[in-house]
Amino acid sequence: MKHLQRLLLLLAAAALAWWLYGVFFPAPEKLIRQRLDKVAELASFTGKEGNLARVAAVTQLVDCFSSTVQVRVDSPAHAEHTLSGKDEIREALLAVRAGLRALDVQFRDPQITLNGDRTAAFVHLTAEARIGTDRELFVQELKLGLERLDGQWLVARLETVRTLR
Amino acid sequence: MNPPAASPPAAAPASGFRRFVFGRNLRFTLLRAAALAGVCFVVFKFILLPVRITGASMEPNYRDGRINLINTLAYRNHPPRRGDVVGIRFSGPSLMLLKRVVGLPGERIGFREGRVTVNGLPLDEPWLRHVSNWNLDPVELGPDEYFVVGDNRSMPMHLHTFGRAERVRILGKAVL
Predict the structure, then answer these.
(1) Which of A64, B11, B74, B141 could cross-link with B145 by S-S, CB 3.0 to 4.6 Å?
(2) Using a CB-CB distance cutoff of 8 angstroms, which residues of chain B are in contact with residue A139?
(3) What is the average pLDDT value for chain A, to the nearest integer?
(4) ipTM of this complex prediction, to 2 decimal places
(5) Hey, what domains does chain B have and what are their CATH numbers?
């Protein structure tokens, strides 16, 4: 009985150590997921948002991108165009927020591939957006390139993917 | 005269209820419940994927808000067939497009006055309820591509998602 108790205690200690290791030294995949959750949260907004809050949210969102970020949009609804750098992204985000009453963005099924030295990652995901109180969903497949700079994962490249060609 | 003994029928409903909820043997009941939960998990996670239809692109045959199931084993023994309603995945299975297969690999598919043309000939489409004026020059499908489109062609063409889908994107066939 004593052996069993010791064994259970040992297992519990090992599980605790494993959990603590994950908390203090999170895997890059976990950090990337957290970053993507943050991007989706910051990209979402409600109609109650004030001007200051809007600018603050956009600034925070832009900080999730690298200074050399490239965003390429190519979808049947929009002609192909590219945004380069944080300033263009900021302007586009402010225009979107000014034009819509509310937006709810969520990222689904992120598939993360890390490169060899784990300083860059490629993410394939599906963005789901609900505009205002519409029941209609807007779904867009995206490919993102992320880079780790100063311990932070930043979006360096974002492009739309045509699910049907 | 002695008072009548406490009537046993009062206890009967309680034991009947217990037996109904827990069964004759609680351990076997729990085992059966666990097995049933396991089977349901496997079936609805990997074989019959439940989906809620959002949008009008498949109306009137598949209405907005309805629930359907996608059978992922449907194409184990044969490839998708013309007329099948299939689930097409995005980056994963959480969200998918529900569309009808109208073109098979190697064919040339186009639209003429809302009707699909296959290698230049109009396709008989019994599932089509609305007429439209869609026109599209024929596109040739690759060896691993299927042409998919919704049933509702009364909506504007630019608002409707349709086109060539790679075979790997087709998750399975709609059951209902």
Answers:
(1) B141
(2) 90, 95
(3) 90
(4) 0.78
(5) 50-174 (2.10.109.10)
B161 touches A: beta carbon within 8 Å: yes
Nearest to A65 by CA among A150, A155, A152: A155
Preferred mutation among A122, A160, A164, A165 to probe B, highest tally of B CBs within 10 A: A164
A16 near B CB under 8 A: no
Please write the tens of the pLDDT for every residue from B5-61.
555 554 455 578 888 878 888 888 899 999 999 999 999 999 999 999 988 889 899
- The structure's pTM equals 0.81
Q: Which domains does chain A have, with CATH numbers?
A: 27-160 (3.10.450.50)
Q: Following CA atoms B175, A135, A77, B68 in sequence, which dihedral angle do they give, to the nearest 10 degrees?
A: 0
